[in-house]
Amino acid sequence: MDQQEVFKAWGESLKGLIIERQKSRGIRASGRSAESLRLELSAKGFKLWGASYFFFQEYGRGPSSSGSGKGQGPSLRVRIRHWIDEKRIQPIDITKDSLAYIISRKIHEEGTLLFKGQAQKVGIEQSIQESIKQFKPQVKERALLDLRSDIIKRFRNAAIS
């Protein structure tokens, strides 16, 4: 397996770990965050890109500061309403819009349960550490082979000159 194949396997494994943790911890509504994960390979390694809301799945959202709420994109209430639909929540004695308003107001006041340490996070950092342990021997071996090959090439080039 060459270095690129090792990086690809490592990146795909990390992606799979994150998605599995997301599923097993019930942090999945539509699946769009998992679908947003994409792997970008380079000669030096890989980057795993994903939707910005992975941040909130890992760290939560704190209470709003005064004067906030003028950000870009849909409001928190609109995003909560969308989440209610994706989770197929059927409120009793209240409309979905009213429920979205109440939830968003509570988050604005107190932050999310994850932010307050009362819910499980996705575990991105934990997934990264586990994947490093799993792939470190392969990456180290490939790096040493590449270094050895580079040194041999340099010696040959120096001997020819």
Radius of gyration: 23 Å
Task: For the record, give the distance between the C-alpha atoms at the N and C termini, rounded to a whole number.
Answer: 32 Å
| Class inferred from helices and paired strands | mainly alpha
Helix content: 55-70%
- Tell me the domain tally: 2
The main sheet orders its strands as 1-2
The main pleated sheet reads as: 2 strands, antiparallel
The mean pLDDT is 86
Q: Can you write the helix and strand succession as a string?
A: HHEEHHHH
- How many β-strand stretches? 2
Poorly predicted ranges (pLDDT <50, ≥5 residues)? none
Question: What is the overall number of helices?
Answer: 6
What is the percentage of strand-forming residues? 5-15%
Shape, please? elongated
Describe this structure in words.
The chain has 161 residues and is mainly alpha-helical. It folds into 2 domains: 1-59 and 116-161, no CATH class; 63-110, no CATH class. Helix content is 60%, strand content 6%. It has a two-stranded antiparallel sheet. β1 and β2 form a beta hairpin. α1 (3-24) runs antiparallel to α6 and α4 packs across α5. The longest helix is centred in the C-terminal third of the chain and has 37 residues, at 124-160. The mean pLDDT is 86.
Summarize the structure.
It is built from 6 helices and 2 strands; from the N terminus they run ααββαααα.
